[in-house]
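Re: alpha-D-galactopyranose structure - here you go.
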Amino acid sequence: MSITFDEEHAVFSLETPATSYIIAVVDGFVGHAYYGKKVSGSDAAYLLRTNEPPFVPSKNERERLSFYDSFPWEYPCGGIGDFRESALCVRTAQGHNAVCLRYVSHSITPGAAELEGLPAVTGTAGDCATLSLLCRDDVTGLEVTLLYTVYEHIDAVARAVRIVNNGTEPLYLTKALSAAFDTDNRDFDLVTLHGSWARERHICRRPVMPGTQGVCSVRGEDSHQEHPFMAVCAHNADDDSGDVYGFSFVYSGNFTAVAQADQFGSVRLLMGINPESFCWKLEAGGCFTCPQVVLACSSEGFNGMSHIYHDLYRAHLIRGEYKDKMRPVLINNWEATYFNFDTDKLVSIAKEAAEDGIEMLVMDDGWFGKRNSDDCSLGDWNVNEAKLPGGLSRLVSEVNKLGMKFGIWFEPEMISPDSSLYRAHPDWAIAVPGRTAGLSRCQYVLDLSRPEVEAYAYNSVASVLRSANIEYVKWDMNRQLADIGSASLPPDRQGELFHRYVLAVYRMQERLITEFPHLLLENCSGGGARFDPAMLYYSPQIWCSDDTDAVERLAIQEGTALVYPLSSMGAHVSTCPNHACGRITPFKTRGYVALAGTFGYELDITKIPAEDRSLIPGQIALYKKFNALVRTGDYYRVASYSRNNEYDCWECVNKDKSEALVTFVQVLNNPNYHSRKICFKGLDPDKTYAVSYPDDEQEKRSMPSVFTGSMLMNAGYTIPRMWGDFQAKLIYIRETES
Ligand code: GLA
């Protein structure tokens, strides 16, 4: 990794192992010269095309606007004549909106950029270096620092922006995006992750068309529907080849991700906080920091891009005790009991679970206030002793006596109208005065922009954790934000509420993991509506989706794993017919699919069929045997049921290519067909491997079981035929003596 500045040509070169990111300054304007496969030579400023019409303003003042409208900006600003989408717009005290940034100075420092109050990728001087490019607009006094962190071993560039009002009057930021990327359109496709509740993050790919396209959220969280990620790729890029540029937003609130193809065959990509409903008052001297966007560039297709994100997020984003540790196998009572449980029921589940080797009981929603359904008590975080006589201390000690850990569910950001909290503080709910706020799941959202509300919400969680030996928290968030109004913010700061809310969530979670450093935190939002890199900064795992059906999970986990390491994907084996879609799949297949994430159970173990139950110890043994490989290895998408409509296949290969685990799911059987030949990936062509079925010692095949890596990868391996739909195979590949 290196960041260099060629003073003669005013060119910055940011180098990662396989890529170059080049910035050039002309006439004081900061331009984007190149990003892609590594190039050498520093005179890259010609790539800005400023030696052709309309030239730079110093050579051709009469066409200044044409220059603005075609120059590849590092950080385009609104109001001056670049008529494409901008990254920064303001409203000054006089009501004007123009900003024009010119280069002032720069610094190159070892380590990662720290972003006040915001999650961001980390790294020491040995891991990464940061370029800070200071720009100024002389008229408004705005000083904007563009931050770029590049890594020694990972092909990622993490970008952020710091904006300081060095003028004498306050101004308003009406749009402050985090990253822009201007490039020639090389027949790009746009890839995003689209979904719904129970169908999160399905991969969606379409050509970039002239004009503006993209995805966004105005729901106050990432949302089930769209995701704070986009990629552009060459039209012929696939899982293993072709240029891919990923953009992953380290943020948990409203976002925008835009691709705009312009009149000159260029594309501008933009990502940041959604400007809709956003207006931030920046006092003279005030500073606003835009959250980070992580760019990943691979010429090895989508698997290459996934490796970059997985390696970066595992090593430089996820923190805490469980960062590099196998997580305890848990059993969660939500799908087992919903609200209908008491201490005896939970202990009976825990008892049988412990016998099978399950290590932690998680008590989900319904333990507090008078909550027996989802229509009350959020905010009243006192134990319901009618359900849990003797309180948490008794329940937790019963569970601990079984040798199990205990975990608990919270939804700290919410308030039910039917709660003591709401009766005492109706103004703590987000609402517009004079307008009846809309309910969702019969609840309102707490106005976390108020320090006293944030303190209450934090202490509600912390005091429960202080009261018993609780080793895991599921932090849920079950509705979107609407009727945006805070009873405490002045009129000209109401546009700050969405972002202030997100900052408060970050502060609370930071406090939580600081006060309880051994806690395993799992974020959740009605399933996977807040599965993002920012949440991973606080919790090493996030509940992927309320849909635990093994088949539905294939597309959900495929889309999630495009960006996020398998170590972060909350995945459980649940009962059938599945509660989200009614499908019946074999228990074995459910287990294999959940092994691709943080493994656990979400069922009433006292009631499931004995045949299923008998498989649990074996599944846990598989989890323990293969978790290190799944958690730390390179993930490869081998085949996609979403694309071929018949079968799914993924693979995890350890870093030295001595071991791999392949999961193959035959979703639909194809009658009168021969065995399916699959080319494995990521192995060493020259190594010799033994192939076995760790969960199926009986699997006998009249074919060799030892192969060269080149045979397995280039010629392929024939998957044993299986009878029926929803069948699966786990295949273990281990280096052996040739
Ligand atoms: C959300 C979560 C579920 C469960 C319920 C409890 O929907 O995603 O896993 O915790 O809330 O109300």
